[in-house]
């Protein structure tokens, strides 16, 4: 894109929901809301406005009439430690993911969670342990915990998948199902630095002196 615009004198319009690609490829961006240009500015400013003002805060996702012979997802929610749906967590709070699904086969199917930043960068993929995977047919409710002090402040999107590892088959996958926000509390740090810290991971190293 850069080569074409510089050598051929043409302007390229790049349309995408991938915030990471937009950030890397575009110096200026336009934000469309309901079919009209809402903002035209530097890309980082437009992305910040989209995240803070436009993006939906979805802490739960429900499915109906999924056509799958092996598995049907029912719900996916983000909870606090008191089982309440929650969007904003401080960095010293655990985040819980509740998954409810119906398994229609005796095959072992592994639920897995995909976590991404607001810029579409993968943070992690977590798959349930073999000794914890639900057995047999039925409706199951399971939980996964994202430990406190792991993520830096920001908006995070969460996807869900169900995989038959023996058959190497993904029975269901949907990204960007739910999202949540981490708020950093500088006063909880063990050193007198109160400004934002760079990086996705917030967990401290163990220092040895």
CATH structural architecture of the largest domain: Distorted Sandwich
| Number of helical regions | 3
> What is the CATH H-level superfamily of the largest domain?
abc- transporter (atp binding component) like domain
CATH topology heading of the largest domain: Coagulation Factor XIII, Chain A, domain 1
Q: β content, as a range?
A: 35-45%
Unreliable stretches covering 5 or more consecutive residues: none
Largest sheet: 5 strands, mixed
> How many runs of DSSP E, i.e. beta strands?
11
DSSP helix fraction: 10-25%
Elements, N to C (H/E)? HHEEHEEEEEEEEE
CATH structural class of the largest domain: Mainly Beta
Number of structurally distinct domains: 2
Task: Describe the overall structure.
By secondary structure, the protein is mainly beta. It folds into two domains: 2-54, no CATH class; 60-187, Coagulation Factor XIII, Chain A, domain 1 (Distorted Sandwich). Helices cover 12% and strands 41% of the residues. The chain is built from three helices and eleven strands; from the N terminus they run H-H-E-E-H-E-E-E-E-E-E-E-E-E. The protein has helices at 2-7, 19-25, 43-54, and strands at residues 28-33, 36-42, 60-62, 71-79, 88-90, 95-103, 110-117, 122-127, 138-146, 154-164, 169-183. The strands form three sheets. The protein has a five-stranded mixed sheet, with no helix packed on it. Strands 3-4-6-9 form a four-stranded antiparallel sheet, with no helix packed on it. Strand 7 (110-117) and strand 8 form a beta hairpin. The chain is globular and about 55 Å long. It starts with a helix and ends in a 26-residue tail after the last strand.
């Amino acid at each position: 894109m850069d080569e074409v615009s510089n050598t051929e004198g043409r302007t390229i319009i790049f349309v995408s929901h991938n915030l990471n690609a937009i950030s890397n490829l575009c110096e200026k961006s336009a934000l469309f809301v309901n079919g009209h240009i809402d903002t035209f500015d530097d890309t980082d400013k437009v992305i910040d406005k989209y995240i803070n003002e436009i993006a939906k805060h979805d802490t739960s996702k429900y499915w109906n009439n999924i056509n799958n012979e092996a598995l049907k997802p029912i719900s996916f929610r983000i909870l606090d430690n008191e089982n309440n749906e929650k969007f904003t967590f401080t960095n010293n709070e655990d985040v819980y993911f509740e998954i409810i699904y119906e398994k229609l086969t005796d095959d072992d199917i592994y639920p897995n969670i995909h976590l991404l930043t607001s810029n579409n960068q993968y943070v992690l993929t977590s798959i349930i342990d073999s000794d914890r995977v639900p057995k047999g047919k039925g409706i199951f409710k399971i939980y996964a915990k994202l430990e406190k002090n792991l993520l830096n402040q920001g908006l995070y999107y969460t996807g869900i998948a169900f995989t038959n590892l023996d058959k190497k088959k993904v029975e269901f996958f949907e990204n960007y199902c739910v999202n949540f926000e981490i708020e950093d509390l500088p006063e909880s740090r063990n050193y007198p630095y109160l400004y934002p810290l760079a990086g996705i991971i917030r967990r401290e190293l163990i220092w040895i002196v």
